[in-house]
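Team,

Forwarding the record for the chain on the shared tracking sheet. I've put the sequence and predicted structure together so nobody has to dig through attachments.
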Amino acid sequence: MDPVWKFVLLLAVCGSVTGDSAIPVGHLQPLGGHRPPDVPIDELHTIPHPREFWDKYVKHEKAVILRGAAKNSPSFTLWTDEYLKDNYGKLEVRLEGKREKHSWLPIGVKGIGRDTIEHFLDTYHDSDAYIVSQLPTDMYHEVLVQPCLTCGSFRNSLVEIDLWMSSNGGSSILHKDAFNAINCLYNGTKHWKMIERKYEPLLHKAWEPSREIGGYSEVNVHQVDLLQHPNMAKVRWSNFTIHAGDCLYLPKSYWHQVESVGDVNLAVALLFARLEEFDDSDCDTQKVEYTPLSDFQVMWDWPGFGNMTMGHMDLEMGAREQLYEMAEDSEEGLTQDFIFQLLKLEMPEFDDEFLLGKAERGFAALDVNSKGSLDSDDIKALDWDTLGAFILEYENQEPSNTELFEYSYTTAEEIMDMILKLAKKNGQLTRSDFIHAYMTQLGGTEKFGTEIFDRLVEGQDEDMIKIQDLTVEKLEYALENWLIRIKPEMTPEMDEEYQERMKEFDRKIGVPNVAGDAQKHTEL
């Protein structure tokens, strides 16, 4: 062990050198300052066979580094800025800020959090923009899938393919993702800090409804306050670096925090299902070799324009298996009313009218032969396009996946507040004052600011509005597209009731609830 870490470990056991036991070791230091990293991560220089990959790693949720596993992909050498602009420049991508949850979302030529690859590459060296997006399908043929995913249950388990790209550094929060992933780095360096999910009860996880599978910690990873978050001092962790050409197998719900460095940092993540068993029956006949991603079916793919489908559930384990069990359990089979009752159970914050509409549209997507009721054979016969159409109706759309994200990014309350403050200050509100404030104070775009002001002055000759004319009705009309997107939120009290009702429902139909996946900590 490094001498510095020996000293840190000694302090962790004995207290600070000043004898002040009230200040824990690692307090206000970056994540991991409380103790040295001591959870080993295997490093391999050859790709394991799918059976070995399952038996040693995926089955046991054990991370592994695959050194050099990305170097065979054409994308590793081809994807320079110039090549990407020339071949894929018009395709769109989703943007985030380099410091996750700590900055406004960047604005691209397609709006808040949306850009073209061409414009991003022209500006990203001097901006806060970071591509966190589904990979457009036109780019699939230049990405090779590692041999460990090319047979058995792995072959048909790809849920989503994501692209990550930034310049001059980026930093994530401490979080977990819903699915297993193989994350391959094509350019730059990534420093990973990882924590096994059995430590989740100690990570000061931000509250969210238990139906969610992902999640993040409230801890400031750059300056961990161990007085506010004392349980972090009990957490063991791993620390390692991924270089260009390396891949990492990141198990489902494995907590991690990542620092991206380098003039260009480019990665592709292959997200695959939360498998609970492995069928290797075709592994003796299927070629186990590097294979173009374009040869695989991906549950949620995206052409590079229009609404994305990031973050939706696994169409097999999350959708088909549960629908199958429901159809088996019900004497009437799966009906629209059954889906309506399930929605009422899972989304208690919404009213019946809203949920009935979702049930009608969702069941219509499934009932391709207009039978009115589906049995288990009907569910088995559904293709992914049909299951996907159902899920798009059943689940609520993530606003940042859409081209109209700005209606949800800024709230009607924030905009009303700003309008009234500006109007009170001068007795009136001008177009230039409003749009400038909307863009600089709320991070909005000129296009959407113009929409608001056009509605405020509709029917007037002047390009301004007096404070006495700012009625509730006029404000609500101007912000109609923001107001209709306000959704009720589930409260902790609702969530407690939801969990009890889901346990009862799961017992009835024999389907496990995959959302609440934190394991009880047994090492304290």
